Amino acid sequence: MRTWLRRATTGRDEKSDAPKSSDAQPMSAAVAGINTYDFSLSDQQIARGVHRKRVGAMWDQIGKHQFDYLVEVGLQPQHRMLDVGCGALRGGIHFVRYLEPGHYYGIDVNESLLRAGLEHEVPAAGLQGRLPAENLRATSMFESDFGIPFDYALAVSVFTHLPLNHIRLCLWQLAKAMPPGGRFLATFFRAPADLPYDEPVQQVAVQTHVERDPFHYRPYELEWAGSLAGWEFTDIGDWGHPRGQQMAEFRRPG
Which domains are assigned to the chain? Predict the structure, then answer.
């Protein structure tokens, strides 16, 4: 029997894979025209590991790197963590293994990636008892109200695929789920401050843009987006990402 995933919408029953109406669309349809995550993987594709390529490949390297970094800056096993844009659990597998059982949570717009993580990657890693299915949620609105406060949140390769209003929404939603002192770390592609606004930027491996995916930002733009929800912003910069993504930290005051 397929494990059910929590879906942040009234269009489906949380405890059923069956849509309530025949015209229900996949959650990932919400990003059609914004980025390339509006796809649905079949069981056969998941079994072949296609999901690992669809989240940017470099599965082992980037998954371990983000885990090592978060532990380095303070994540401890007793903390509760939200993985924003967790996908098929490239980094999630490492966090699930490290954190106390049930302390890892993840949200993503693509239900088939969540299914690949829960039904393929978690069993392959022998971690079935450490990640309840209800800790994963498909959402296009970054709903993070799992009923518990998060000490840490992480978004790797998420802001790089989103326009600024989506980032504002993400920061607004997370602000409601994190207590004073809560830390949200998010990667982004940097644009030089003196670059004309309409020019693309050649990053390590891709060219980024102001108006289309992949997106780049100036730190002051992210600081402004966070300020609308009361976040304190720090431009961390280089954190060793193999494709040159930079790190920003948003912290709840107090």
Answer: 42-251 (3.40.50.150)
